[in-house]
Write a structure and sequence with these properties.
about 300 residues; 12 strands; about 45% helix; single chain; six-stranded parallel beta sheet; binds beta-D-fucofuranose
C-alpha cells in the first residue's frame, strides 16, 4: 500500500498543469487584486503558474508568451494591455497547439479561432452604467471632465464608447476636457491638477468621470488641494469597485463606481480544464456582470469586505 500511495502521488504530480499567465502590470489596485487572486486560485488547484508582469508594455507580453511556448506550457492566459498587434504571437501558440484564454481586455485579431474564449465584462456597458448614474444624479445638465485609461486598451475604448453613447441623449451634458491618466493614481492626480488649472480652478465643473477607481483616488486629492470638495462640488463616478473606493464612498469623496470582478482566474482555469478534456465549442465571450455602488447602497458590500480582512 506504500507503493500504491506513492504511485498515486506520482500520477498526481505528472498530471499537474503548467499555465503561463501574461499580466498587464500592477498599475491599479484592481490589477493587484486580480494577480493575487489568480495566484491563489492556481495554488488551490495545484497548478504550476508561470506568472509574468509586463509593466504595461506589450513587447514584454509578447516575449513572455514566446517563452511560455518555448517551455511547452499546457495553456496560456493573457490579459492584454492593448487590443492590436497580437496576431503573430497567437499564431505561434496555435502552431504549437497551446490553447490561449484571453481575460479582461480584448485582442483584435480578426480570427477568434486564435483563442479558446475571452472572460471579461462588457466595457461598453460599464460606460453606459456610469453615464446613466450621472445623468440621473444631475438631471442631464453637467460639464464633465474625463480621465481615460491606457490609450488603445479595450477597457478605455469601451468605457468611453458606452459613456458617450448615453451622453449623446442629453443636450446639456458634455465632456469639456478628456485626457489619459494611464489607469494610475499618480497620473490621475497630476492630470487632474493641470485640468483644474486650465478650468480656472474647477468651480464650473459638475463631474469627474474616470475609467478606473485608481485615477479617481488620485484626482480627488487634486480636487481637495484646489479647495473644492470631491463628491459635492465635483461629483465623481468611476469603474472597478476596489476596496479603497469604498472608503472614499463612505467619506463622501466619491459618488459611484461600477463593479468589475477581479476574480477571473477561476473561470479561466475552468475553461482550460474543459479544453484539455476535449471540449471545443466554447462561447467566444464569457461575460462577467457587475453592480453599481453608490453612497446610498455601498454599506452592505463595505461591511462584507472590511469583515473579510
Ligand atoms: O479597470 C483598471 C486596470 O483592464 C478592466 O485595467 C481593466 C482595467 C481596470 O488597471 O483598474
Amino acid at each position: 500500500s506504500v507503493a500504491l500511495a506513492s504511485m498515486v502521488v506520482a500520477s498526481q504530480a505528472a498530471s499537474a498543469l503548467t499555465v503561463g499567465f501574461s499580466q498587464v502590470g500592477s498599475e491599479s489596485g484592481w490589477r493587484t487584486t486580480f494577480s493575487e487572486s489568480v495566484k491563489a486560485e492556481a495554488e488551490r488547484r495545484g497548478i504550476d503558474l508561470k506568472f509574468s508582469d509586463a509593466q504595461q508594455k506589450q513587447e514584454n507580453q509578447i516575449k513572455a508568451i514566446r517563452s511560455f511556448i518555448a517551455q511547452g506550457v499546457d495553456a496560456i492566459v493573457v490579459a492584454p494591455v492593448v487590443e492590436t498587434g497580437w496576431r503573430p504571437v497567437l499564431m505561434e501558440a496555435a502552431r504549437s497547439r497551446i490553447p490561449v484564454v484571453i481575460v479582461d481586455r480584448n485582442v483584435d485579431v480578426g480570427n477568434s479561432r486564435l483563442y479558446v474564449t475571452r472572460i471579461a465584462p462588457d466595457f461598453v456597458d460599464e460606460g453606459r452604467k456610469a453615464a446613466g448614474w450621472l445623468m440621473d444624479a444631475t438631471g442631464g445638465d453637467c460639464d464633465i471632465v474625463e480621465l481615460q485609461g491606457t490609450v488603445g486598451s479595450s477597457a478605455a475604448i469601451g468605457r468611453m464608447e458606452g459613456f458617450n453613447e448615453v451622453l449623446a441623449e442629453y443636450p446639456n451634458a458634455q465632456i469639456v476636457r478628456s485626457q489619459t491618466a494611464e489607469f494610475t493614481r499618480s497620473k490621475g492626480k497630476e492630470v487632474m491638477e493641470s485640468i483644474l488649472k486650465a478650468e480656472g480652478g474647477g468651480k464650473n465643473l459638475c463631474a469627474l468621470w474616470t475609467h478606473n477607481d485608481e485615477m479617481a483616488l488620485g484626482a480627488i486629492q487634486a480636487i481637495k488641494e484646489a479647495g473644492l470638495q470631491p463628491g459635492k462640488d465635483i461629483l465623481v463616478v468611476s469603474v472597478d469597485a476596489v476596496d479603497d473606493i469604498f472608503t472614499a464612498l463612505k467619506a463622501g469623496d466619491v459618488n459611484a463606481t461600477v463593479e468589475m470582478s477581479p476574480h477571473l482566474g477561476g473561470p479561466a482555469f475552468d475553461v482550460i480544464d474543459e479544453y484539455l478534456k476535449g471540449k471545443r465549442d466554447f462561447e467566444k465571450w464569457i461575460v462577467m456582470d457587475g453592480e453599481v455602488f453608490t453612497q446610498q447602497n455601498y454599506q452592505a458590500e463595505y461591511n462584507k469586505r472590511m469583515g473579510a480582512e
